[in-house]
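Objective 1b of the project was to move from sequence-level analysis to a structural picture of ligand recognition. The entry below was assembled by the postdoctoral researcher (A.K.) and checked by the PI before modelling. It contains the amino acid sequence of the target and the SMILES of the bound compound, pyridoxal-5'-phosphate.
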Amino acid sequence: MTLASLTQSRLLTTAIPGPRSIALHAEREKQVTSGFGVALPIFIDRAEGAILEDVDGNRIIDFASGIAVTSVGASNPKVQAHVSEQLARFTHTCFMVTEYDSFTAVCRWLNEHTPGDFEKRTALFSTGAEAIENAVKVARSATGRQRVLVFDDAYHGRSLLTMAMTAKENPYKLNFGPFPAEVIRAPFAAPLRWPTGAHNATADALAALERILEENGPETFAAMVVEPIQGEGGFIVPSPGFLPGLRDIATKYGIVLVLDEIQAGMGRTGALFASNDENIAGDITVTAKALAGGLPLSAITGRIELMNAVHAGGLGGTYAGNPLACAAALGVFEAFEDGSLIENALRIETTARGILEPLRSTTGIVADVRGRGAMLAVEFADAGTLVPRADLAKAIADLCHRSGLLVLVCGTFSNVLRLLPPLVIDQDLLEDGLILLRDVISQVSEAVDIEQLETVAT
Ligand SMILES: *Cc1c(COP(=O)(O)O)cnc(C)c1O
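Corresponding predicted holo structure:
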């Protein structure tokens, strides 16, 4: 059955959330754990391109892509074709029981396309956290060492080991300990608030890292795990030279450099992988999120001598590299073939910067507009002091939601609005969303100014 295509424009038929969504949400609250949060409590009926249509008939612009997952669009025809064909043949065998070739084909594509001019092998799993855990398992097995180095503001998942590797306590870790030991954290070269100024961030952060390694013994570290652009922590682009510096330090001490490209990879930043930007390669590159266009699939791709160091049978999982997910990934790879999605990511950045960057000088609340390609963020803080303003990020996100634009908040201080549109978004729709966002930010900033004037006056 093929559905008529979904018009790529914003449409409000009710208030957001509408009556049907409100009723469904009330039922959800009776059945579903309250441990899951929700950014916007609307129920989706259909999605295509960069439009989410809810059960009340509202058409919402999608600047979230299900957290950087549906980069090729929420119902990409290439993904659909591969998955439908696979669905008709079989849904599961378990790759550890009997084999199927799409698993190998996904591994081949990743071996050929991830950074690093060396022979590689790949292992497939289902979730990002599972892949990160397996990268640590491989690094430990190959080096005979135990420690894992991670960074401030890092996010690596919600399983026990990856919670320990994630920086932020609330909501990710609160009351969930004790955590696995041997995880040690170092500063990330985040330019905006670097105490001695942005131009010192790389040198200072690398010096701090050398000191931490020296204190703990560099020979005790199996892996150093880093996001080339941080995701949940606030879409922080490290200052130039930091990632190459990590590469050098990891090589010097024989530490396995694991690049967590789960959010930034697969074309999101205007290159297939964010680490392409500074020409570095991880010894292991981790992919997930956009890898299979919404079906659960993750991977670790690394040097053959690391990936084959694990004893036979040491890696796996019932659903690891599920056939439907592998088929979806092959559809995603096809969608990337002609280069247009990468071009789109760059067009999205140019358009967004043109519309949003002036807000830094026209409002007193935008501390930064940053990111690369279609992984962009606006950070809200008080002018001068840079005191983070989570209240403004939340107010702006709420107003956008009510007007039919889905945006997400992130950041250790919850004061960053992140933009993750599908790479297939039409130019008109993109501009509609960005202008709406710009106007909402201006409106909130004027209200803040009036508030400040009133405080001064009293
Ligand atoms: C989402 C994410 C993860 C965890 O992936 P899950 O599939 O949610 O387990 C790990 N690292 C980064 C950078 C992520 O954005």
